[in-house]
Specification:
441 residues, mainly beta, Immunoglobulin-like, 4 domains, seven-stranded antiparallel beta sheet, four-stranded antiparallel beta sheet, 2 helices, elongated, disordered N terminus
């Protein structure tokens, strides 16, 4: 008699193997299966590193380990032993690597499940242990090597460090080694750019601070031009505020000497408050007995060209009467060049608020010509002298007196050809330099 069983040999072997595993105490696993995306909607491609410390399951202890899984086209699929309800130290630390750097990190607590779970269902939203911090939104700490943070080693290498003389609550300068050091001196001293400190307004600096000055001019909504009491020196020292908002030079306004010209879009409106802070070399603002004033360039620019037969403005500069003090001297220089078919004579002219103070006709051979005017500001009069010379034409000089207009006025340089030709007259450059008076003790 033969016994008949309902099991095939292979099925019987599988059953025996499964029973053996169960008896051996191997813990069961939960499958985590999901598609990972970047914030821009693209699928994540890179690596996921899953780390865990040792913990104990009801069936067996789990040794610490780290598993690196490659994620292609966003697909993450991994089996993990359940950690939920096995102790406060049982969790997985998960880091996402892309382009060789850690992109983000999180912690997982995996429950027992017979069906696959998503990442969202295992991600921790609160710290696995009290006192840890670092994971965005969880307060969990993730100590990362410096090289895992993109750009961090280079940034740390470039950061300034404390020098041997560093001290808090002091003005700091960068020493020759690139370290930060405190500047020693009296609390009332002024600090130079080289880190030295001297009493303000003393020595050879002749550089004085003007704080909270209201520029002269009508705040009407249509007036663009305002004047300071002194010329900022250097011009970059001017900090101009409109209703407490710092204005940007060349975008909100331009500066010529002591004259501020607002652009149309930034023009002050009624009830606006203007305040100016700047340094100045102007001797008249220095404390009594101080000396040493440096020249200031009011403007220095290339001019334009013309082939017109009428006087045409080729360069101009605005001058503020308030910046001119008795004892000052203005020097105006401008140069011309004749190009093309240079067979034509030409005429040049310098106008002071519409009054010609230099007018000269040059011959065709004067391919280049140079001109200069000096205006001396006296207590009662303004006297000028001029010189003019061409490549062929001899030196010519002149002198006279001038009115000093109030407010802001133009200084213009004009030129024209005297006959039709293929020549072109160019104002190659022009400049106005102010030489302030010097207070002698």
């Amino acid at each position: 008699m033969r016994l008949q069983f309902g099991w095939r040999p292979l099925q019987l072997l599988s059953l025996i193997f499964a029973i053996g595993l169960a008896l051996s105490g191997q813990p069961s696993t939960t499958r985590i299966s999901d598609t990972i995306y970047l914030a821009n909607g693209q699928k994540f491609n890179g690596y996921v590193q899953i780390e865990w410390q040792s913990f104990v399951t009801p069936k067996a202890p789990i040794a610490p380990y780290s598993n690196l899984i490659r994620v292609i086209d966003g697909i993450l699929d991994v089996n993990l032993v359940a950690t939920k309800n096995t102790g406060e130290t049982a969790y997985y630390r998960v880091r996402y690597f892309r382009n060789g750097r850690v992109q983000f990190a999180e912690f997982w607590d995996v429950p027992v499940s017979s069906v696959p779970l998503t990442v969202a269902s295992v991600r921790l939203v609160s710290p696995p242990e009290p006192g840890q911090s670092g994971v965005p939104g969880t307060g969990i700490d993730l100590p990362l090597p410096q090289e895992d943070v993109e750009g961090l080693p280079a940034d740390l290498a470039d950061r300034p460090v404390k020098g041997p003389n560093y001290s808090p609550s002091r003005t700091v300068y960068v020493n020759p080694d690139g370290a930060l050091e405190a500047i020693s001196g009296s609390p009332t001293d002024c600090v130079r750019v080289d880190g030295t400190a001297t009493p303000c307004g003393s020595g050879d600096s002749a550089n004085y601070q003007v704080d909270g000055e209201v520029p002269a001019g009508v705040v009407s909504g249509v007036n663009q031009i305002f004047t300071l009491s002194a010329i900022p020196g250097p011009p970059e020292s001017l900090q101009l505020y409109r209703n407490g908002v710092l204005q940007k030079r060349e975008l909100d306004y331009t500066l010529s000497g002591a004259v501020i010209t607002f652009t149309l879009g930034a023009m002050p409106q009624p009830d606006d408050v203007l305040l100016a802070y700047y340094r100045t070399f102007q001797g008249s603002t220095a404390p009594a007995g101080s000396s040493g004033s440096l020249p200031q360039v009011v403007c220095s620019l290339p001019g334009s060209s013309t082939n017109a037969l009428t006087l045409t403005t080729l360069g101009s500069c605005l001058v503020g009467s308030s910046m001119l003090q008795a004892g000052d001297r203005l020097e105006i220089q401008f140069d011309f060049a004749l190009t093309g078919t240079a067979t034509d004579s030409y005429q040049v002219q310098l106008d002071w608020n519409g009054t010609p103070i230099l007018a000269r006709t040059f011959v065709a051979g004067d391919v280049t010509a140079s001109n200069r005017a000096t205006i001396v500001i006296g207590s009662a009069t303004r006297q000028y002298s001029t010189t003019s010379v061409g490549q062929v034409s001899v030196l010519q000089a002149g002198t006279g007196t001038l009115p000093l207009p109030g407010g802001t006025f133009p200084v213009e340089i004009r030129g024209k050809l005297n006959a039709n030709s293929a020549a072109q007259l160019t104002l190659t450059s022009y400049s106005i330099t102010r030489f302030p008076r010097v207070i002698v003790p």
